[in-house]
Amino acid sequence: MNHLCPLCKTSYPSDINFCVKDGARLIAENATADYNNPEIHNPFERQPQNGLPYNKASIGNRFAAILIDGLIFIGLMIPAAAILFFAFIYAYGNKEEIAITLCIIGGLLTLIPIAFQLLKDGFKNGQSPGKRTMKLMVIDLDTNMPCTRKKSCLRNVIVLLLGFIPFVGSFIEPVMVFATIDGRRLGDRTANTMVIDKSQYFN
After folding, report:
1. 22 touches 8 (CB < 8 A)
2. What is the residue extent of each domain of the chain?
3. CB atoms within 10 A of CB 77
4. Potential cystine with 122: which of 66, 83, 149, 186 (Cβ 3.0-4.6 Å)?
5. What local confidence, expressed as pLDDT, does residue 144 receive?
6. 82 CB contacts (<8 Å, ≥6 apart)?
7. Are 135 and 61 in contact (CB under 8 A)?
8. What spatial distance separates the first Cα and last Cα of the chain, rounded to whole Å?
């Protein structure tokens, strides 16, 4: 009976236990459907000693991943900011038609970094570029599968909403990461997701 990687779906001979592509523990091919069916199989059967589905991910790695993703966000925002700056210059120079055109273009370009910020954890294997670099991933606790784009949007929109709270809003999520035993911030609790070290997945 062949083994199957739950991440990339690559099939391996039965004597291979780990995927050479992403390191995930392999499962029997005919067990895939059962694994995702909570009535047949509990994916959280092997719980760590803290009683949670997975152990808390490294805080240092998490904040390094946030830094990497933040730099990407800034890089994606630069073109929009530059165009909006020139729109302001043209508006100040009474060239309203050019200014309006540039404002529209700049506004559309701002959607790119916003989309990245919302969907980044729904990329392949539940890993944003930063999390992939730091060997982290976001797991969907409802299915024990990598985070989807829908769940990624749900967990990350909370960060954006909290940013509107004066003074304390931007500190709430980092404090949750530090203070909670599972490292789950409000966005994770809303989407029922969790950031884990990738080496834990299916181990």
Report:
1. yes
2. 3-35, 59-200
3. 17
4. 149
5. 84
6. none
7. yes
8. 20
